[in-house]
């Protein structure tokens, strides 16, 4: 197909967003694009059929893997939400180290400087036995690090470009200058052919600035990004993992809601984003300080209500 033949409403919406406005584009057309790119709802048999064809990537935490039915599902999108200090970034790093250690290509989109190579090395040490040959461990560590590519993204439009390039890598066509599309970057195109895990930490940090009254295209941008993630995962048969911070919820009627177990926060991306991930894990923290106890609960998707406890330690994430 020609470069334009493979670009549908999602690409049209992306171009409108990257151009920074909707001049000449009616509200009706934007609403139509929103409906076309919004995540589609599948019926039960269709979901079961998809699940039967999926493989899993470990997160590095047995308890979390059990909640997910075996780990991060390739072809699906998983969300980690929770307040600061509940282990979201640590689980992302652990999942990246685990996938790469098994030979999978990982693209880690770092939006706030949370990526830590030293933590990847620490997690890798937790994968090997004490009597393992040091030279072989070092060689395997280098291979693991080589399989993790870090991409710094400081706004949502950069993330759109990254996803576009990864998607183009699947068809091996970078496009041509002047064809109305994004020109491919060789590195991302190559990664797109062999992608096993995509991590975005934190996705909400990129979307929050456009989800304001000053940005009337905010919800359209969010829908387009959600559709991109959901289409990329099955196209590459890769797992997608991202983090979503929480925001405070106002308490009516004079209630205090200050207790550790009270519902005083909610995922930042709101109700319109709810159907984007196939599963959402809400993380919490019951004890403060280094080595504190953290909790994980499935709050959306299969296994809703299931819980586990874990602890972040020096060389891994330990199930309690």
Protein described:
The strands form two sheets. Strands 3, 4, 5, 6, 7, 8, 9, 10, 11 and 12 form a ten-stranded mixed sheet that branches. The protein has helices at 9-18, 27-37, 44-51, 62-67, 88-101, 117-127, 134-146, 156-171, 186-193, 203-207, 218-236, and strands at residues 56-57, 72-73, 77-82, 105-110, 148-152, 195-201, 239-248, 265-267, 279-285, 293-300, 307-313, 316-319. It has eleven helices and twelve strands. Residues 1-7, 171-186 and 252-262 have low confidence and may be disordered.
List the helices and strands and how they pair.
Layout: H1 9-18, H2 27-37, H3 44-51, E1 56-57, H4 62-67, E2 72-73, E3 77-82, H5 88-101, E4 105-110, H6 117-127, H7 134-146, E5 148-152, H8 156-171, H9 186-193, E6 195-201, H10 203-207, H11 218-236, E7 239-248, E8 265-267, E9 279-285, E10 293-300, E11 307-313, E12 316-319
Parallel strand pairs: 3-7, 3-9, 4-5, 4-6, 6-7
Antiparallel strand pairs: 1-2, 7-8, 9-10, 10-11, 11-12
Please sum up the structure shown.
Helix content is 38%, strand content 21%. It is α/β, with parallel strands linked by helices and 320 residues long.
Quick tags:
320 residues; two-stranded antiparallel sheet
């Amino acid at each position: 197909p020609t470069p334009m033949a493979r670009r549908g409403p999602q690409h049209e919406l992306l171009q409108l967003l990257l151009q920074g406005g909707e001049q000449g584009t009616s509200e009706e057309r934007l609403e139509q694009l929103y409906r076309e790119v919004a995540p589609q709802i599948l019926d039960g048999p269709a979901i079961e059929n998809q699940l039967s064809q999926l493989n899993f990537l470990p997160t590095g935490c047995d308890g979390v893997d059990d909640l997910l039915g075996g780990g991060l599902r390739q072809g699906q999108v998983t969300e980690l939400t929770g307040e600061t200090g509940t282990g979201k970034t640590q689980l992302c790093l652990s999942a990246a180290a685990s996938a790469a250690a098994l030979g999978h290509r990982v693209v880690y989109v770092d939006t706030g400087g949370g990526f830590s190579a030293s933590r990847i090395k620490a997690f890798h040490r937790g994968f090997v036995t004490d009597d393992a040959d040091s030279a072989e461990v070092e060689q395997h560590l280098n291979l693991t690090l080589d399989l993790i590519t870090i991409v710094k993204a400081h706004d949502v439009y950069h993330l759109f470009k990254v996803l576009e390039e990864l998607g183009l890598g699947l068809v091996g066509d970078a496009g041509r200058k002047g064809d109305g599309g994004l020109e491919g970057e060789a590195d991302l195109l190559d990664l797109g052919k062999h992608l096993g895990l995509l991590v975005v930490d934190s996705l909400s940090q990129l979307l929050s600035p456009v989800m304001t009254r000053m940005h009337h295209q905010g919800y359209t941008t969010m829908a387009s990004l959600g559709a991109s993630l959901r289409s990329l995962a099955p196209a590459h048969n890769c797992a997608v993992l991202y983090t979503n911070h929480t925001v405070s919820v106002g308490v009516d009627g004079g209630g205090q809601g200050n207790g550790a177990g009270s519902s005083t926060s909610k995922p930042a991306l709101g109700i319109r984003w709810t159907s984007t991930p196939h599963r959402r894990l809400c993380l919490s923290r019951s004890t403060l300080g280094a080595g504190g106890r953290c909790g994980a609960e499935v709050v959306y998707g299969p296994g809703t209500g299931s819980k586990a406890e874990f602890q972040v330690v020096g060389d891994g994430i330990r199930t309690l």
